[in-house]
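Title: Prediction job returns without error message
Component: structure pipeline
Severity: low
Priority: P3
Assignee: unassigned

Description:
Job completed but the reporter wants confirmation the result is attached to the right record. Sequence as submitted:
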Amino acid sequence: MSVESPVIACCPGSFDPVTLGHLDVIERAAAIFDRVVVGVGRNTTKNYMFPLEERLDLVRGAVTHLANVVVAPINALLVDFCAQQGARVIVKGLRFSSDFDYELPMAQLNEALSGIETVLLPGSRAYGAISSSMLREVASNGADITQFVTPAVAAAVRAKMEQR
């Protein structure tokens, strides 16, 4: 009798800030896979509202109700990070057809580089149209984003806006 190893998935992103749309994808992945590693990455071409440590803390706070989810910084190429974590699957959320156009070649490249599979989950109707960059813009103009993020994230964004 063989014992199958747990299937670990990685949900990567910059999460600046983490939104209810991100959380929806993470929760759905947690229901499908044995373990989910939320990889919080850095992209040198992005101008972040929150430094990496704050983004890690905000994501950790948003997933505390999910026992099979952990949060870690991505300090390598995504496929190398997945290998380090034992992840056999990358999970990405899709909101629009443009997301598919971007994610498909990335999925194909990741598979060619490492054999890792990518699962593309369509965004839920309630959260499909929101993005972190849109929320940063809305918040920077003084609008309320509480319906799109957790209370802790809303407070952190408000505090960040007050510092500016």
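Comment from assignee: result matches the submitted record. The beta strands are 8-13, 35-40, 69-73, 89-94, 117-122.
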